[in-house]
């Protein structure tokens, strides 16, 4: 399977799309380069949530490998997203070209780094890596496949998926999430939330015994996308998704004017809940003196 990314990841084809070498090579030849920013953390999250799912062709019994190819330093937290994949037993190989940050490649990649991190000065030089990388990938797959795979979930249906996401106690800055856990308790939950009209997603990791979360420090009057994913030892179950808008900030009420003089006015109002300061603007009417 292959995904390209900039500020928005895009799946080019899933693991189940092609079954022969010739088909894959033809798809590569027809690939259009996607320019733009370098949100590597968002891309790795996309791979986990979209490309490594059974309905995208990922087989539970198969070893999971991700090869990251990048020519720049990530503009978001790539390390956090990479750690989530590695915690699930997904092995990451990092290949840098031109302006890639080698320190970041080493953070993202799996151990041992001498087998999983590569860096070349320009794209044509990638061909020099193919033979070695092929040998390393194949040997790593064989090595991992020979180990006993325990606690492998049999499917990712309702048994492994939470249900009934409820979003309550919504304020201008917070909301409360709760859900019903799956029949098979997960090891952890990943809760991802972001403004629906763009913004860097934030992530909270919870213990699998917890089934609620208070989100705080949100932006007022903003629609948020919320996703809850159950994480098992070797797979991520189907997620719950919801959309809710935070409330607008409360306004001061009952503005009153009193104690008028030739050069002063007294104003009074009912407080706005949660306000820490007030900004008072006044100007001469209709149009005379400065504000």
UniProtKB/TrEMBL annotation:
<dbReference type="InterPro" id="IPR013783">
    <property type="entry name" value="Ig-like_fold"/>
</dbReference>
<dbReference type="InterPro" id="IPR036465">
    <property type="entry name" value="vWFA_dom_sf"/>
</dbReference>
<dbReference type="InterPro" id="IPR050525">
    <property type="entry name" value="ECM_Assembly_Org"/>
</dbReference>
<dbReference type="InterPro" id="IPR003961">
    <property type="entry name" value="FN3_dom"/>
</dbReference>
<feature type="domain" description="Fibronectin type-III">
    <location>
        <begin position="161"/>
        <end position="250"/>
    </location>
</feature>
<protein>
    <submittedName>
        <fullName>COKA1 protein</fullName>
    </submittedName>
</protein>
<keyword id="KW-0964">Secreted</keyword>
<dbReference type="Pfam" id="PF00041">
    <property type="entry name" value="fn3"/>
</dbReference>
<dbReference type="InterPro" id="IPR002035">
    <property type="entry name" value="VWF_A"/>
</dbReference>
<keyword id="KW-0272">Extracellular matrix</keyword>
<dbReference type="InterPro" id="IPR036116">
    <property type="entry name" value="FN3_sf"/>
</dbReference>
<feature type="domain" description="VWFA">
    <location>
        <begin position="1"/>
        <end position="133"/>
    </location>
</feature>
<dbReference type="Pfam" id="PF00092">
    <property type="entry name" value="VWA"/>
</dbReference>
